[in-house]
Design a protein that fits this description.
single chain, 75 residues, 80% helix, rod-shaped
Length: 75
């Protein structure tokens, strides 16, 4: 009877250890996701700024081609 209790206790401890590692991993992944979201926001902002700058340059040069024009497939 004592043997079963020891085995059960060992299994519970093993599960607690695995849970602890998973919890740490989950926290680390959440940090990575938050950082990626911040990076994406910065990239989107930079793309918007560049797009506005290109539009401004086109307007100054009197270009008729739109920034949103589709790029030909050979590019």
């Amino acid at each position: 009877m004592f043997y079963r209790g020891v085995v059960l206790q060992d299994r519970v401890e093993e599960l607690q250890i695995k849970y602890s590692f998973q919890e740490d991993l989950l926290q680390e992944l959440n940090k990575i996701i938050v950082q990626q979201q911040d990076d994406i926001a910065v990239i989107k902002s930079e793309i918007q700024r560049i797009k506005e700058e290109l539009i401004s340059l086109q307007e100054n040069e009197g270009s008729t081609q739109s920034i949103d024009a589709e790029i030909p497939p050979h590019y």
